[in-house]
Design the sequence.
């Protein structure tokens, strides 16, 4: 009986590792968080905040995280797996929004600490996650790019408009002189 239970346990762990590998490969970014002594309500609030940005949090044994990363040929960083670890994975292209959510939440709840992460096969530290969180959102950056592209055109149109206005003003002045 014990052999069957052990086999079921091993099969379950293998299935978890396969699912973790699949989710890591399909994600745009993964962030490791430490949630020691964080109550369940706060963790659910974080999950709800992350859900809006197509992001989820997975909690399992550190050895299973390590095994999945090792099988995917990621460099194993021991600082990510110190204590209780959660893996925040996003399928969104807006990594900055996820970083903002994590950093802001860790400011509100000091029991949550961002340990670092992986973005497209590149390992980043907790400090780099904080730096990313300070960047403007994707929408703001796109707006800045559009404004930068549109400003020369707007300036040219304004210049043409001034030429037309000066012509109209000159005609108005000539009309006033002739009426006198």
Sequence:
């Amino acid at each position: 009986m014990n052999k069957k239970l052990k086999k079921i346990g091993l099969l379950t762990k293998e299935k978890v590792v396969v699912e973790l590998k699949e989710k890591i490969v399909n994600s745009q970014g993964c962030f490791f968080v430490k949630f020691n002594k964080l109550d369940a309500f706060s963790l659910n609030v974080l999950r709800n905040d992350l859900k809006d940005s197509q992001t989820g949090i997975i909690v399992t044994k550190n050895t299973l995280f390590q095994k999945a990363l090792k099988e995917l040929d990621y460099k194993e960083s021991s600082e990510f797996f110190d204590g209780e670890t959660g893996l925040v994975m996003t399928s969104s292209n807006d990594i900055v929004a996820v970083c903002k959510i994590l950093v802001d939440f860790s400011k509100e709840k000091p029991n949550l600490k961002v340990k670092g992460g992986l973005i497209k096969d590149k390992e980043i530290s907790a400090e780099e996650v904080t730096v990313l969180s300070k960047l403007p959102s994707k929408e703001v950056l796109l707006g800045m790019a559009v404004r930068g592209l549109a400003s020369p055109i707007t300036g040219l149109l304004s210049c043409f408009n001034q030429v037309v206005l000066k012509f109209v003003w000159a005609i108005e002045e000539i009309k006033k002189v002739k009426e006198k």
